[in-house]
Amino acid sequence: MPYTTIVDASTLNDHLDDPTWLIIDVRHSLADFGLGRKLYEQAHIPGAFFADMERDLAGLKSGTNGRHPLPDPQGFAAFLRALGTNNETQIVAYDAGGDMFAARLWFLSRWIGHDRVAILDGGFSAWQSAGFSTTSELPHQRMNGDLSIALQSDTALDTAQLTPLIGDSAYAILDARAPERFAGDVEPLDPCAGHIPGARNRVFKENFTSDGRMKSPQELRAEYETIGLPADHIVHQCGSGVSAAVNMLAMELAGLPGSRLYAGGWSEWCADPTRPMVTKPKPA
């Protein structure tokens, strides 16, 4: 049975020696781009490979296409093939737990048509709490896989596709950023603070319990159904297309498939000052 949303630590531990499973460590920090690699080198799940958020899971920046533009799909597929990924490979990505980066890899894998991908529920923290082994040894290189691509381009919107949805009550834009960034009070990463007109704030952290695991499918479904729209009329966004993937993952886990992601996020949107924005007036 393929796993397409989450996998618990015990199930992953049972498959550590399964050659059809691929484990990828995606720990990262937006405040310290080198932290994920350092943590991986100190200790990781046995057999896990490392994916660099800025290099492996994002494309080239132009200055106007956001902080984490989508990677070239062929390049991302080549990255997975180099780790041994075939069409039947079960990918499990993990981050620190209760975080956004494993969901980014989950989204990208599905975007190129590989649905056999899940995140480790609770991340590395849950793995350690369960008492399972860790290692600092690098995994043995695998033979290149033969993963094929079936790009699901309709799952990722660009600015031209998002623009006509603004103000349309038949659609909802969910912004996964922290409330203070959404409100326009602070902006630590992007050129200006605020949000896309009509967007609603659904912080990605709201999908997790206090221990960093995903809420139950039933609880998540009840929360997302309050939006009152079908899943395919919901668009997720955040600062740069990373934390928004957690909201999309949560909807899939809740049995509400079909939502989409505006990959450029606020960092791309606000790069063009002619686009409509909701901001707070600057103090006199």
Describe the structure.
- With 284 residues, this protein is of the alpha/beta class.
- Helix 4 crosses helix 9.
- It is globular, with a radius of gyration of 18 Å.
- Helices cover 26% and strands 12% of the residues.
- The model has no long low-confidence stretch (mean pLDDT 96).
- It contains ten helices and ten strands.
- The strands form two sheets. Strands 1-5-4-2-3 form a five-stranded parallel sheet, sandwiched between helices. The chain has a five-stranded parallel sheet with strand order 6-10-9-7-8.
- It folds into two domains: 6-151, Rhodanese-like domain (Oxidized Rhodanese, domain 1, 3-Layer(aba) Sandwich); 154-269, Rhodanese-like domain (Oxidized Rhodanese, domain 1), CATH 3.40.250.10.
- The N and C termini lie far apart (61 Å).
| Uncertain regions spanning at least 5 consecutive residues | none
Radius of gyration from CA coordinates: 18 Å
| Fraction of residues in β-strands | 5-15%
Structural class: alpha/beta
Number of helices: 10
CATH class of the largest domain: Alpha Beta
> In the CATH hierarchy, what is the superfamily of the largest domain?
Rhodanese-like domain
Instruction: Write the element-wise H/E pattern from the N-terminal end onward.
Output: EHEHEHEHEHEHEHEHEHEH
Number of DSSP strand runs:
10
Mean pLDDT: 96
Q: What's the number of domains?
A: 2
